[in-house]
Each structure stands twice: as C-alpha cells, then as structure tokens.
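User: quick one, fold this
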Amino acid sequence: MAVRRPLDDCVHCGFCLPTCPTWVSWGEEMDSPRGRIDLMRGLDEGRIALEPSVLRHFDDCLGCMACVTACPSGVKYDVLIEETRERIEREARRPLADRWHRGLIFALFPHPRRLRAMLLPLWLYTASGLARLVVRSGVLRLLPPRLRELVELLPPVRARHLRASLPEVTPAAGPRRARVALVTGCVQGVFFPEVNAATVRVLAADGCEVVVPRAQGCCGALSFHAGRAEEARAMARALIARFEAIDADAIVVNAAGCGSTLKDYARLLAADPEWAGRAAAVGAKVRDVSEVLAALGPAAERRPLPLRVAYHQACHLGHAQRVVDQPRALLAAIPGLQLVEVPDGDQCCGSAGIYNLVNPASAEEIGERKAERILSTGAELLASGNPGCTLQVGRILRKRGHSLPAAHPVEILDASIAGRPAADLRGGS
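Assistant:
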C-alpha cells in the first residue's frame, strides 16, 4: 500500500489562488500554491528536474502562508515550501551573481555584531546629508536592481541607535504578575532599538519582570525560510542554550518572522536526539508580545491617543502564528485611537524575509498594491509588528511621494501609557 504524502493533501480546489500574491500578480498556475505543489510532486517522483525554469517558480514564492490560512484541506504548504527550498540549497547550482548576492545577505543580516558595526558608517552617511544627495542625484538608478533595493531599504540611523542598550533585568512596576525573557532580534535589535525599549517598558508597566539575556545571536528565521536549514539549526541551538537556563514564564518576541521560527523549533530540530526535547521546551514558551499583554490584561492606565491608525498584519504573525485578534484588541483599547483595517489586509507587503532583496521586481509590484490600500484608509500612522514589513512599506510609500509614519503596536501602547502626545508618533519612530 502506497504511503500517503503531505503533497497528496492538496485537492486542487483553488481556494488558495486569490490569497497568493504571485498568482494575483501574474495569474499563472505554476505561480500559485497548487501549481507549485504539482512541481513538488514532479520532483518527488523524478518526472522533472531542478532546472532553472522550475527553480524560478519556487524562488518566486514569498512563503507568506496566506494559502495555509485559506486551505480547507489543511495542506501544510509552509512545511512543503521550506523542505523544497532546503532541497534546492542542497542540489541546485545557482548562477554566480545569485550565489554572491545571497551570500552577502546571509553574511550580514543574521549577525547582530556585524550589523552593529555598520551603524557608525550609516549614521555618518545619514547625518552628513550624503544620503539625501545620493537619492537626489539619481545615482541609485545605475545600480543593479537587487543592490539598489538593498540600499533603498536601509533605515536612517540616528545618534540614539549608536548608544541604545537595554538593562539585563527590568523589575515589574507594581506587583509582579509574570517573569519573561525578551528575544531582541537582529534587524529589530540593531535598527529598531526603540521597539525593544518600548517592549520592555510596556511589559514592566503591566506587571512583568523582563530579562534580556546578553550576547543573543540570530534565531535562524531568515536562514530557515530560505532553505539554509543547517545554518538555521546551528543558530537555533545557540539561542536555545541561551534561553533555556532562564527561569521565565514566557519567551517574548516582537518580530513576527522570528516568532514563527522560534515557535517551530521543535520541527526544525526534530531529527536531532540531543536537541529535539530542548527545542520543543523552548518553543512551547515563545509568545508574541501581544499575546502576553492580551493574556495578562492591562495593569497600567492607557491614556488617550487621538490617532487614526491602520493595522498592517504581518504574514508571519497572522498566517504563521495565527495571532490575529490580540494586536488589534490592544490598540483598540487605547482611548481616542481609531483603528482602521487595511483592505485585503491579509495580503503580503512583499518583504517576506529576504524576498524583496532577491526578487525586487515582484516585491515592488506586491508592495505597490499594499501601499495603495494603506493610503486608502486615510490613516495618520501605520502599525506594523515586523521590521521587514516596516522597511518595505516605508520604502514603497517614499517612492510614491508619501511619508506615512510607522510604529510597532507596542510603541503605540508605550506612548499611551506614558501619556506622550500623538504628535510624537506622527513624527515617525
């Protein structure tokens, strides 16, 4: 009797099609989830090879997991695409330029120390006015599209980034209701330190003692989602060893992509007898910051913030972690804040880990749709729970001549608790 494969769960019903950003863009069957599953079957059965024309369809997938949410048959497309990408990294030979570009990305972004080493040069680049001059000169148009995308996505670095730090332990304000450990992240920790600082303040205000372990490395999310599984496993082991010794009720994450990977550590290390149990124990403690705050309920007073806020649901928060209601409820409970939904808000923005760095044309098309829908809300502020999404949407809006400020939901809560004026958030984070 033939063994049923996860690939066989797809019944080609088509419910996934309108949720898939690349199918919406191009209307091509092979660029839909069910079309890619057909290609996976062909590879599995040896009917097709990993030639460039096949590889392209897998590379064009964002891995946004909207199809997983929409699927009535429970197809684990997220697992299927990650396993396929792992196979691609083992077996396929990419062109030299592609290998070099991907190598640059993975030599930089999953390494917090290397990112921090960039801060001073990037601050000088911004503070000197050179960044504005480069943009106005049009010289960026001379760069290859992938490299231009990388430069355009770089966030402005302020002086505060150079001196940002967090205390190792922050006591709860008032009676302690929980003890949590914070994952600071790579891009989040280096380029968005104010998000981590706000996370610590809000958790403490609502009764959490917050521990921030020193010398944290990458969680492995970027590598895992790109098929670099062994690299991701090494990073996961190091982070597990760092967090498992901490007596905490929860391990808190404030970046959607990191959270989805941390919660999936049990699968990532399932074949490793030494680490499987440890991975499952750590993964079971992981919670998005909105989950922790919603479960505890408010302890600190929320003061009015008269703001019209559009909530952008990051794919790895809504589709991967199924954390949908909590961020919205936390924002909606702030007095004076008007929370508005983005039309087709469960569609990806085009960031998707490294997708906008390796597929800039597709990411641009998808991002344009997202930007147009965000602007249609008339919002004064965009709430986004993932740094990649914030950078992607901000870049697209700037190209369209708009400057809608963005903030993590926890930054908005922090402003409300502190009683800071709404103008502070309108000025951008």
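User: anything notable?
Assistant: The longest helix spans residues 360-375.
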